[in-house]
Amino acid sequence: MNGVAVAGLSGATLLDPETGTSASVDVVLAGDRVASVAPSSGPVPPGHLDATGLTLVPGLIDLQVNGAAGVDITADPDGLWRVAAALPRYGVTSFVPTLVTTDERTRTRALEVLAAGRPEIVPAGARPLGLHFEGPMLAPKGKGAHEERLLREPDPDLIRGWTPEAGVLITTIAPELPGALEIIRELADRGVLVSLGHTAATLEEFEAGVQAGGRAVTHLYNAMTPLHHQHPGPAGAVLGGGDLVAGVIVDGLHVHPKMVAATWKALGPKRFLAVSDTTAALGQPDGEARLGTQRVIIRNGAVRLALGDSDEPDQRLLAGSAVSLDRCLRLLAAYTGSGLAEVLPAGTTVPADLIGRGDLGRIRPGGPADLVLLNDDQFPVATVVGGELVYDWYFAPAPEWTTV
After folding, report:
1. Choosing from 26, 76, 277, 370, which is the catalytic residue?
2. What is the CATH number of domain 4-57+362-392?
3. CB 348 within 8 A of CB 58
């Protein structure tokens, strides 16, 4: 089940995340690529979407997706492509399927599913860019919702075969663990993006991880040494400057809105990375779900461990989120008093550049035809992935469209 081939769109107001400018444009597509972007003029050509009155943005890129639509990727690696099919309704056209701490067999199966490609019976959806192994080399004191019995110390045998070519794009490591610095160097040399997180590191231990090759931070503030004015720890290292890109879960729960605003001011639009850390709970009603081996409860928009130290369900540990990336960007704009154009890089150019995919997150001639149309409330109403309309809430099917 593929999408519907689109020849182009006309009359949309393009927001450019690199320049922050907006303009009414006509976009011509050639297969899965953008052929041209020009000022809007004349009638809508046959086969084009009449996008007058809509806002056009590049497809969103989410580097931390644990699941969606009732599917947890760690618990059910075979459901990876069903997660991909669910994401375009939230404006996500590329994503990194994320496995929380698990065993080698599950990681291997996820790599096999990724390599096999989308089954024909699954609808077309967002493009998986490679896997994010969030663990198992995490600190017990920073494990968060990960199951402690599955954590492992860094070991060369553990990372055998972990390369982007094999499907491993990102891994999260606690830099203070014994042998971690050597593993970080090795993975960085292979081209794997090493993100530092789930850590109890001191400032010095964290900075050593950066020197070894860590280039990003996994969900800043969450599951790491707390920020203290005399003991800055990982958060202080990030806020104090440097080149690290920091992922932040902007759902109003993981990080207080005031801290989101302060972090935005400290990092700026080139280092602030919005991630959803969304789970099987995305798009699901309140109830029970899974995060890897753990039972979680969806309640009032939050995902928390089903079991915990507190007798109050709303006080138990957060275990991923139920938020979408498009909502993260709307919240980021609200918390910082910014316009959508100002925060758009956090979900487009910043993740694209971080993973070395400068062709993504932009609408440029020759680039992938990944387009999202938003209504006046900045909600996605249509999403095009690789030239195919894979989510449509706005347009009625037209006779001249052809299913490919």
Report:
1. 277
2. 2.30.40.10
3. yes
For residue 308, what pLDDT is reported? 66
Residue count (the chain): 404
277 among known catalytic residues: yes
Question: Which residues in 240-255 are b (16+ Cβ under 10 Å) and which e?
Answer: eeeebbbbbbbbbbbb
Q: What parts of the chain have a pLDDT lower than 70? A: 1, 308-315, 396-404
Which residues lie below 8 Å from residue 377, measured CB to CB, with a gap of 6+?
none
Provide the residue ranges of all domains of the chain, joining segments of one domain with +.
Answer: 4-57+362-392, 60-354
Measured distance CA(89)–CA(97) in Å, rounded: 17
pTM of the model: 0.95
CB within 8 Å of 173: residues ≥ 6 apart: 137, 138, 154, 180, 183, 184, 187, 194, 195, 196, 197, 209, 214
Q: Contact at 8 Å (CB) between 178 and 153?
A: yes
Residues 6+ apart with CB under 8 A from 104: none
What is the pLDDT at residue 42? 78
Cβ atoms of 337 and 21 within 8 Å: the answer is no
CATH number of the domain at 60-354, please?
Answer: 3.20.20.140
User: What are the two backbone dihedrals, phi and then psi, of residue 144, each rounded to the nearest 5 degrees?
Assistant: 60, -125
